[in-house]
Write a sequence for this structure.
């Protein structure tokens, strides 16, 4: 086995927008490759057939699903980020929660100095943590 890579399936042609958003928020992050559907292919032309991006060195794959499913993202799988400073945590939490849903507001829950959990505007779940 070479490696294990988280895979995100977007339902509303949001994959490229989400990748651009995430890589703009997190330093040392980049979109590594994008393959788009062309004319007369199974997905909508120009949407993401397959892409790879990295956040702080962790690679993710994603697609724009050309099939509508009865399921989407769930908070039971989340991206966990350990921040270096309270300012970094506050900024990231604020930006990711815009048009999203806060599941646990920023606070001291006993297991860290400061922690928050949210679903972003694309439905992807994030936990941000400032260790003690």
């Amino acid at each position: 086995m070479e490696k294990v890579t988280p895979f995100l399936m977007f339902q509303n042609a949001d994959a490229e927008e989400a990748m651009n958003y995430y890589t703009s928020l997190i330093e040392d992050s980049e979109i590594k490759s994008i393959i788009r559907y062309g004319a007369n292919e199974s997905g909508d032309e120009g949407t993401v057939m397959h892409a790879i991006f990295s956040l702080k060195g962790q690679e993710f794959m994603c697609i724009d699903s050309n099939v509508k499913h009865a399921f989407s993202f769930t908070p039971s799988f989340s991206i966990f980020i350990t921040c270096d400073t309270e300012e970094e945590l506050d900024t990231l939490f604020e930006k990711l929660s815009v048009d999203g849903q806060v599941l646990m507001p920023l606070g001291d829950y006993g297991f860290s100095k400061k922690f928050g959990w949210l679903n972003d505007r694309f439905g992807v779940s994030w936990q941000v943590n400032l260790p003690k």
Q: What stands out?
A: Strands lie at 7-10, 29-36, 48-55, 58-64, 78-82, 101-107, 114-119, 125-130. Helices lie at 15-25, 86-97. Residues 11 and 65 are 5 Å apart (CA to CA). The mean pLDDT is 96.
